[in-house]
Amino acid sequence: MCGIAGVIHRDGTADIGAELTAMLQSMKHRGPDSTGYAVYGPADDLVVIRFVLAEPNKSTGFGMEERLERNRAEVESRLAKIGAEVATVTSDTGYAFRATIRYSGDLKALADYLEDVPGCEVLSLGSSLEIIKDLGDAETVSDQYELGSFRGTHGIGHVRMATESEVDLASAHPYWAYPFADVAVVHNGQLTNYHQWRRRLEQHGHRFQSECDSEIIAVYLAEYMARGLSLETAMKHSLDDLDGVFTYVCVTGNELGIAKDEMAAKPLVLFESDPLVAVATEEVAIRSLVKREVETRDPYEREVLVWQV
Amino acid sequence: MPGSGSRSGVSYDARGLVEPHADMPDNIEVDGSRARFDATDLTIRQINMALRKLIYNDGIADVTVLNPASKHSLAVGILKRCRIHFEGSPGWFACGLIDGPEVTINGRVGWSVAENMMSGVVTIERSAGSLTGAAIRGGDLIVKGDVGARTGIDQKGGTIIVTGDVGINTGFMMQRGRQIICGNAGMNLGDSMYDGSIYVAGKVRSLGVDCVPGEWTDADTELIERKFRVHNLGEPPTFEKFVCGQQLHNYDALEPSERKLVIH
Description:
The structure holds 2 protein chains of 2 kinds. Chain A folds into 2 domains: 3-43 and 128-308, Glutamine Phosphoribosylpyrophosphate, subunit 1, domain 1 (4-Layer Sandwich); 44-127, Ribosomal protein S6/Translation elongation factor EF1B (Alpha-Beta Plaits), CATH 3.30.70.60. Chain A contains 8 helices and 15 strands. Chain A has helices at residues 16-25, 64-81, 107-115, 138-145, 194-203, 214-226, 231-241, 283-289; strands at residues 3-9, 34-40, 47-52, 85-91, 96-102, 121-126, 129-135, 154-160, 175-176, 184-191, 244-251, 255-260, 269-272, 276-280, 304-308. Chain B has one domain: 3 Solenoid (Pectate Lyase C-like), CATH 2.160.20. Helix content of chain B is 13%, strand content 23%.
C-alpha cells in the first residue's frame, strides 16, 4: 500500500513543493517510510542534476564524512572532464546533492560517468525536473530539502510503505526514466511481467537503479517517447504490455498523465478545473490542496488522461 | 516494549500512525433531539466519539456533521435507528457495518461506503468510489451519481441504486439482493454471481462469467417502481434484468462424496 499524488497548474507557476507536501502528508497512513517528489521548476539553459553519494542510513560512521567529500570532489572533477561547466553544487544533507551545469553533450554518457563514482546514484537529470526523495514522511523530507519554497508548474509525489524491499532511497519513488531527461513516474500497484520487460529494456541498453517494478514504467514510457510516440500513446500501449494491477502517474517537462489498469484495482481520484488538475490515491489529499467541497471522480478501467502545462 | 502501559493502550507505534488521544469536541450544538457539529478541525476519532456519545448516551436521534473533509471511517458501526447527515464529503469506509441508521451524504464518498451494512438507508447526493456497498446484507444504498469498480461485490442482501454509471466487475460474486443501475455498466457485470438481480438501464460493456439476461416479471416492475417512489428518484427508465446462469461448479448439488458414488 502506497500513496501517489500529482498536480499540474495550467496557468503558470505555484508553490508546488508546499502543495505536494500537504497532499502527501495527508496520506501518511499509506506509507510513512519514505517520501519522494518529482517537481518541475521553470526551465532554463542549465541542466539540473540531483544525485546522492550514500544511502541516508549509511551516510554516517567512521571516515564517512571524508569519503563523501572525496566523492563529491570526484563528481565535480568528472563533470569538468566530460565538458560540463559547473554553475552550482549544493547539498541539504551531506549525502544528497543538487548541481546545475551547462552541458550540451550526451546525457546517458554523463549519467554513466557520474555513477561510476563509488556510491553515486543520479536521481534525476533534465532542464527542469528535480527528484528529491528521502526517508520519513512528507513534512520531514520537505523540511530537510526546503521544498516549501519550491515554485513550479507541475509535479508528482509518493509515500511508501515498505513491504517487499528495503527502506532506502533505491526503493523510494519517484523514478527517473534513465537516461531520458525530464521524465519521471510514481506508481501504486504490482507489475507481474517485470522481469520480462526488464530483460527487454536492458537488451536495448537501459540500466536500472533498483529492483522495483515501478522503474520499468518510467523507462518503458521514455523508450516509446524517444521513438516518437506521444506520452498519451505510450501510456495507452503500456496498458497492453504491462501485466498486473497498477495506477501510475507520469510527468514530462510539460505534461502530466495518469493510467489505470484494466481491473481498476488501485485507487485514484481526479479533480479537474481549468487552471488546476490534481490526482491522488485518496480524496483526503485533494482536500488538503483544495480547501472546499469539489467534484472529484474515480477514473475507470483502462483510462488514460494527459494534461499539458 | 516502547509505550507499554500508556493511557491510550497503544503499545507500539514506530511509524507514528496511531491517533491515540481524542478529547470530546466542544463545538457540539444540541437542540432538543437534534445536534450538529463542525468536523473541520476534528480528528476521525473525535468525530466518531461525538457521534456515538450523542446517539447512544444522549439519545439524540438526528445528528448533522458539517465539513467531514474526506476523512475516513466516519459513522462506522452505528447499530441504532437514528438520522445522520453529512454536509460535505466523507472519505473511505463511511457508514460501514451500520445496522439501522438513515444516513444522507450531501457530497461525494470514497471507497467502500456502507460496506457490510445490515439495515438502514444511505443516500449519497453525488458520486462514490469503488467497492460501493461491498458485502452489504440489507438496507438501501442510493448513489445519485457515478460509482467506481466492483459495486456490490459479495453483496448478500439489500438494494443498491446508482443513478449514473458503474465500473468493472459490478456485482462480482453477488449472492443475494438487488442492484438497480440507471446508467452504463463496465466489463464483467455480475461475474460469478450466485443469486440476486441486477437491473441496468444503459449499455453493458460485457457480462461476466455465468451472468445471463433474466426473465422480467411483475415483481421486478413493482420493486423498481416502489424503490424509485420511496427514494424520490422520479420516473424509472426501462431496465434490462441480469441474473445468475447457475452453470458454475457451486451449483452442482452433489457433495464431493456423493459425486464419487454417482461416478462409480
